[in-house]
Amino acid sequence: KRDKGLVTVCYTQGGDEISITGDSLILAINPGEWNTLGLELTDIETECVKTLEVNKYPVIMAEVAGLEAKQYYVPKALEKSGYGYISFLASRDGRDTNKGPHLYSVYINTLANTEFKFSSDEDLIEEIKQIKGVTDVTILDKTIWDYNPRLPYKTRLALHKEEEASNTLHLGAYAFRGFELTESIVRQAKMRIAECFGEKVVYDRGIDW
Question: Among the four residues 23, 110, 191, 202, which has the most C-beta atoms within 10 Å?
Answer without folding.
Answer: 110
